[in-house]
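User: two proteins, same treatment. go.

Assistant:
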Amino acid sequence: MNKQTYLCFIVLLTSTIISANPFSKNTAKAMAYSDIQRVRIDFTMPTGYIKHLLLGFTPNNAASDGVDYGYDALSIDDFPDDLNWIIEEESYVIQGVGAFNSSNQYPLGMFISNAGDISISLDTLENFETDIDVFLFDSLYNTYTLLTEIDFQEYVNEGTYLNRYFISFGNNTNGTIYNSYTMQLAVDENNMKETSVSFLRQSKEIYITSNQNISKLEVYNLLGKRILNKEHVNTKTLRLPTTSFTNQAYGIVRVYSNEGVTNKKLLFK
């Protein structure tokens, strides 16, 4: 049994039990359950294992944002690296809520024992008549990654992360939106002038200058896949060779500083 199959088995089994439990005595309710709109989220751990999470919207507001018997399933696993819905300070693998509302967002709890790269992605959407946007909101940087287009990828240090990551369906805080087309920072002109990112064709280097200390640097290809991550930079000037990704014609360079995040699309030629 592969890693993904092993981890999703418990989730699918729990989902089956829940679907049979509250409506087994009532056909009308069973039909209502089939109309639940579902958002399935995948979490890839630093070790490469994948865990599945489920968020369900009940059209009749049969469930709430709190704990609802028959709609929510506690996370009974004990993984060293984990991601769960947080309901009333407890960890859940399945969360049922009321009718879909694009202004609502739902908190996630991330628990990391093995520092490394993680990924949060959208698996599937079910029973939505029209297309919706699904975002991963990072409250620390006030950024929204559009999961319907690209995966959220991040290097995460060991620790517990509560009240930082949320599943959202709109830009509730006027934050920066990352998508597969631009990944461009929506900041005012003054902030845009604080960090400069360019490509030095003669030396084949990315050249970055800022009036703030650069804390972190990431490079993505145009499909949204991270191809370079540099932590603990702690300098205002940086020259970075591009020899490790010379097969990339274009890339998105993301620079983190005390003032926020700056993105620049570069041609590596």
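Protein 2:
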Amino acid sequence: MAVLALDHLVYGVPDLDAAVEIIARRWGVQPTPGGRHEGLGTANYLVSLGPHSYLEIIGPDREAPDPEQPRPFGVSPFRQPRLLGWAVQVAEIDEVVKESRRVGYDPGPIRPMSRHRPDGSRLQWRLAVPAGGRLAYGGTVPFVIDWGTSHHPARDLPAGCKLLSLDVEHPNSEEALGAIEALGALDALGSRLEVMTARFSRLRARISTPKGKVILR
């Protein structure tokens, strides 16, 4: 399985400007504008979590009309900020999805996506998410992303933060863990990942910042 590393965490917010201001003040880092997702009604800011991974702060794009379909990941102007999901970076996404299905977990159809960066350049990638765009197991099982020949966003982000651990909580933790294993994603985090049984599905990330450790959930 060609899983390379944790790619990013997805943090959904109702108001991008407000979320960026809060993170800049509390973490001591300034999130970097990522760009707009054309036709999807969302935009994002990024914070480095290491040389190959980042935090995506995603929210409604105030400059875009409301999309015809629901925004990705259930992002809404009316919901509370929440850690929605995580992604692992893969090479040869077709083979990864094929193998995962063979061992019993379907990560969803593969689809191409793109966005324009503030400098005008265009990023392109392919990802697999369940049909309908809702993340599997309440976001506790990662989706897979293949950047192909595109410039990885983490390469340009200022350093300063680091992911210390990620807790995955789900009512059926054994089934969620089985899906994670089917994707070959356990090695993406190693000992930093813990899968636990809980009443509700939830992610909890511990992050080191210039102003100390924070917990994002």
